């Protein structure tokens, strides 16, 4: 699936110095998700615009094998988690969510089950259900990075940006002031140690800054940005770090987007940053055009796609509608 935005990026490059002209959305050639791919399985969810989102066929029987191992010992939570994660790898979340739900009932003190079910509720665009699960996970393990991170994302996509920023902030604060009582994270990541791994810290900082901007608290966003270290060494978090460097004014928007394969997941992280920044700077036509494109991307499980759907079809629908009608369902 190819989609050329070179003209848009040229306009965006000047966005920090001059307002770009408005681009009506009905003039854009917005791509549709590729729903007929060879490995597509049954629909697992619907986008916020009602388009079917498909899982992937398990050609080698890995799911069947994982379920067989799980059923050999129903008292072992790790086998249940492994089965759920195997199913997740095929984007078959309608099958993994009940696995985690049974785990919540069988192992009520194990935070990993509401944490993972909450994450998968985000994947299928059930944000309220995700919030309920992830709030429970945080109660069970308030020092869990993953519980706090995905709770913040669930709030963000639901449009509760203040609460999103608070969830990210609470986790990051534990790096300076660890909690007195700590849950056994059973191999999971801890909030208090995230500064030891920039590949974990930087994505949280990315979303925390965006949440502050989207909440309208621009002063808090600027103050928070002053605490971000631009010199961290990252590997997997490079798109997030480049976005933070753009926010800090150390990269322009063309540098942020340069080299990103538009059909890849890297592009989605970078363009989500660009769209949200532009929207909160008042450049809403350009922001909406990026959200519109990303909302139809075939990488439907990516957080950048979920965010773009939430913005374009829900949280910022009224603003985006000013620049043209939304794409119709097909």
Structural features, described:
By secondary structure, the chain is mostly helical. The chain has a domain at 1-45 and 252-330. The protein contains 16 helices and two strands. It has a two-stranded antiparallel ribbon. The longest helix is centred in the middle third of the chain and has 17 residues, at 198-214. Mean pLDDT is 88; it is low at 1-36.
List the keywords.
globular, single chain, disordered N terminus, 330 residues, mainly alpha, 16 helices
Strand proportion: under 5%
Radius of gyration based on Cα positions: 20 Å
Biggest sheet strand order reads 1-2
Mean pLDDT: 88
Topology:
Blueprint: H1 6-13, E1 40-46, E2 52-56, H2 62-72, H3 77-88, H4 93-106, H5 112-123, H6 127-140, H7 145-158, H8 161-173, H9 198-214, H10 218-225, H11 238-247, H12 253-257, H13 265-280, H14 284-295, H15 303-315, H16 317-321
Antiparallel strand pairs: 1-2
Summarize the structure.
Helix content is 56%, strand content 4%.
């Amino acid at each position: 699936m190819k989609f050329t935005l070179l003209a848009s990026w040229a306009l965006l490059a000047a966005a920090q110095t001059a307002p770009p002209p408005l681009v009506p959305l009905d003039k854009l050639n917005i791509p549709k998700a590729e729903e007929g791919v060879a490995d597509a399985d049954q629909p697992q969810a619907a986008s916020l615009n009602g388009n079917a989102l498909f899982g992937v066929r398990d050609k080698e029987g890995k799911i069947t094998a994982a379920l067989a191992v799980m059923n050999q010992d129903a008292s072992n939570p790790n086998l249940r988690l492994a089965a759920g994660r195997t199913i997740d790898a095929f984007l078959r979340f309608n099958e993994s969510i009940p696995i985690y739900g049974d785990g919540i009932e069988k192992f009520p003190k194990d935070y990993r089950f509401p944490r993972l079910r909450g994450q998968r509720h985000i994947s299928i665009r059930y944000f309220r259900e995700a919030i309920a699960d992830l709030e429970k996970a945080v109660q069970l393990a308030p020092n869990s990075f993953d519980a706090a991170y995905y709770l913040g994302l669930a709030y963000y996509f639901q449009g509760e940006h203040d609460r999103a920023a608070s969830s990210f902030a609470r986790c990051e604060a534990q790096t300076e002031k660890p909690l007195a009582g700590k849950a056994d994270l059973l191999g999971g990541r801890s909030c208090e140690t995230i500064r030891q791994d920039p590949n974990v810290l930087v994505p949280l900082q990315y979303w925390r800054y965006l949440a502050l901007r989207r909440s309208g608290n621009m002063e808090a966003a600027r103050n928070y940005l002053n605490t971000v270290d631009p010199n961290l060494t990252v590997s997997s978090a490079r798109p997030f770090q480049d976005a933070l460097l753009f926010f800090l004014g150390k990269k322009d928007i063309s540098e942020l987007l340069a080299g990103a394969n538009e059909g890849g997941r890297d592009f989605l992280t970078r363009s989500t940053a660009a769209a949200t920044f532009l929207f909160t700077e008042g450049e809403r036509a350009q922001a909406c055009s990026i959200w519109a494109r990303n909302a139809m991307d075939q990488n439907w499980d990516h957080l950048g796609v979920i965010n773009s759907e939430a913005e374009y079809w829900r949280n910022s629908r009224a603003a985006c509608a000013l620049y043209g009608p939304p794409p119709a369902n097909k």
